[in-house]
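Help needed: design a sequence for this.
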């Protein structure tokens, strides 16, 4: 099923993504992937959510790592190329665009959690935390596109906030 979701994001990225401007968005794609890689590395023994395959390609997508790497390679670039490539100029349209992306990501997670069993939450993570995370993540992608150093600074602050809220023990780090 993860292959189907990734295929849908790839098809959307091909159709609506700003491929001619990919070099402009490449640093933000790398930022998106880097932050997720950092999260997976730091929380390897204490992940807040894990992916699993339940329908198709179980032999190919055997665990969270394989699925997450596929998402990083397909969903994240497609998301950035559409989200930033079509980012509107008018303020009210920007707010609607942001809300649309938050809703799309949140509803996909909700469906994957409640109906398809493709994701599991752990250590107190829930759909409310996912919503807050998305409300930070999408503006952060825009901030990174405009001011990368500010985005990295704010990301570190948000990571520290989550680390403290979820009382992640330092001992779990590799």
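Sure. Designed sequence:
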């Amino acid at each position: 099923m993860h292959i189907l979701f990734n295929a849908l994001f790839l098809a959307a990225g091909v159709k609506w993504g700003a491929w001619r401007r990919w070099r402009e968005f490449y640093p933000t794609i790398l930022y998106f992937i880097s932050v997720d890689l950092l999260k997976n590395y730091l929380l390897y023994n204490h992940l807040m959510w894990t992916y699993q395959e339940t329908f198709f390609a179980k032999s190919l997508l055997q665990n969270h790592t394989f699925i997450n790497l596929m998402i990083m390679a397909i969903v994240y670039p497609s998301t950035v190329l559409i989200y930033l490539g079509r980012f509107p100029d008018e303020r009210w349209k920007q707010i609607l665009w942001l809300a649309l992306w938050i809703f799309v990501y949140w509803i996909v997670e909700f469906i994957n959690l409640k109906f398809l069993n493709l994701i599991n939450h752990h250590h107190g993570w829930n759909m409310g935390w996912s919503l807050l995370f998305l409300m930070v993540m999408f503006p952060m992608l825009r901030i990174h596109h405009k001011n990368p150093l500010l985005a990295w600074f704010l990301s570190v602050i948000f990571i520290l906030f989550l680390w403290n809220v979820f009382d992640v023990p330092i001992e779990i780090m590799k």
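The longest helix spans residues 91-114.
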